[in-house]
């Protein structure tokens, strides 16, 4: 997609409205209000009164909306960040683009390929506007460094990506309530690893997938065709393979890690979920403190992601991440979900 020209380049700060102020939206709102250059958070939208009050009290937002269409009708908003339930992403992205706004939308773009393609079509009719999906790991300095090393040929030809997204067990089971709109563990968690695998391997075409899974602690997920521990394998054209693991039940903390094996070396990113560089040795053993959640792990990347969105909207720097990447991630994530539910090998369409 072409780079975007902005009404705001070099001038006034980008005026952003946010929709969704839940677990992640409240964090994005903070980043947009206080942590991102050249932008102001001017509006917030949520059907929940307490969330609108949060935006007013904690982010200094004055224009509050219960309904997204009303926020989109405001001509004084240049861009929107959609941090709403996944099942709403595609329709809201299309509405925002048609209203003339730049759009940041959280991952995944949609829960079916048709909806993704509908977004892509509308985005192609609005090339002057940015449409960006929040694959936050693309903005993590460690993943970026690894990708550069690979692109420079330093590990030869990469052919295996072994990547996991593992969350600390939540005994309250937030994600069980989240299951009807999340698309399940592969669409919700492994989608990041799918995008990473494509990025690290140079975007080969996915041919077919296998999957399995188990419910170790949260059997209620089975009612939604979901699991709390999911395993998948992707075969790519040209011989590269990805092995993915996602878990909601880690006992120790959040552990996102990726290994890329090439013909002349391998890289490991984020092994063991260590919170810092302090290794403590005492009578209990030798250990690190552990990361608690995805935000603690990726806070810097979330900030960089918003900075990249604002820079793209202002026409300062084009995004490398394309909407088409989000379409492919959904296509593969859905094939994996089908492979898990049917127990069959699934060809990626
Ligand atoms: P959440 O359930 O905590 O928040 C959803 C928010 O959307 C709530 O504030 C809710 O009031 C609001 N909402 C619901 N309907 C709305 C509507 N019609 N208009 C405006 N707001 C509406 O969920 P969470 O965990 O914050 O996830 C939100 C999205 O962010 C999901 O798509 C999820 O996949 C994504 N996410 C991405 C992560 C990443 O690593 N990039 C991590 C966590 C979540």
From TrEMBL:
Q: Which PANTHER family match?
A: BINDING ROSSMANN FOLD OXIDOREDUCTASE, PUTATIVE (AFU_ORTHOLOGUE AFUA_2G10240)-RELATED, NAD(P)-BINDING ROSSMANN-FOLD SUPERFAMILY PROTEIN-RELATED
Q: Which organism is it from?
A: Roseateles agri
Q: Where is the GFO/IDH/MocA-like oxidoreductase domain?
A: 143-267
Q: Where is the Gfo/Idh/MocA-like oxidoreductase N-terminal domain?
A: 14-133
DNA repair among keywords: no
What's the family? Belongs to the Gfo/Idh/MocA family.
Protein name per its UniProtKB record: Gfo/Idh/MocA family oxidoreductase
Q: Which UniProt keywords apply?
A: Oxidoreductase
